[in-house]
Amino acid sequence: MNTFQLNDGHKIPQTGFGVFMVEPNGPTEQVVLMALKAGYRMIDTAAAYFNEEDVGRAIRKSGIPRDEIYVTSKLWMQDYGYAAAKAGIDTSLKKLGLDYMDLYLLHQPYKDTAGAWKAMEEAVKAGKIRSIGISNHSLAFLKKLLPQMEILPAVNQMECNPFCQQKELRRLLNQYGIRLEAWYPLGHGNAELLQNEVLRGIAEKYQKSVGQVILRWHLQEGIVALPKSTSEAHIRENLQLYDFSLTDAEMAEIRGLDQGHGTHNPDDMNNEKILERYNVH
Ligand SMILES: NC(=O)c1ccc[n+]([C@@H]2O[C@H](COP(=O)([O-])OP(=O)(O)OC[C@H]3O[C@@H](n4cnc5c(N)ncnc54)[C@H](OP(=O)(O)O)[C@@H]3O)[C@@H](O)[C@H]2O)c1
Fold this sequence. Notes:
single chain; globular
């Protein structure tokens, strides 16, 4: 699996497989097994996806050595603050059935984010987590959090695709060597994105799908993409990104599609309402 370098010395696969909104107790296990068989070596789950157990089962059933699979999970807001985060980390490990996670993220900014981060730093020192990072941290949140951190985040996982390119945030991330990971890399299936004329033109030229062009764009931008699919054909297709490359002019053309915002505004989240919907305890 091709990898990118992280700022903590570890490497991360360039493309991973996301399991947001895939049902637990079977469907997630099935789809992760399918993805591993297709060649994915990174799985992105979260406490709030309620399917960490399925991910762990699929990894064990796959027969692939643990150290060849990169596992990411995320701490949910309910478990922020130092003491709660320590317990939350152990719960994720237990549910996954693993003795370490490759990457663990703060799912989004909320109340005692700094206390939760301290617990994550200690878990790195204890060997429970290899790399730690954040998610949904906009410029404003990141600027507030950075001075309180002993270990810098290795990644920031944000909504990112050709319509939402996070250009300003990426300038700050680059200063700290923090790698951007893209959620909704295919726009969550947004038809306007997947049928965009510029992207379709490029796809036709290379005899590739629009999805593959979008994922290749992420790769050439140095962004880790986490496409999700429950279709076997898409799962395979989304990994076939290395038999073509976009020219500088095509990269520039795609950069021109940026609309400057995505479907979610991390600076304006109704976290209390979200917490009512996602109770991980
Ligand atoms: N940190 C966060 O707050 C956060 C938030 C959201 C998501 N995430 C992560 O990001 C991952 C990806 O997000 P997502 O799953 O919602 O969005 P996505 O990967 O952008 O889009 C998935 C949608 O695109 C379709 N699709 C997949 N491959 C395709 C292809 N080659 N051509 C056309 N359509 C294709 C899928 O349908 P089929 O099933 O039919 O293929 C599905 O409807 C999540 O699973 C999760 O791991 C993180």
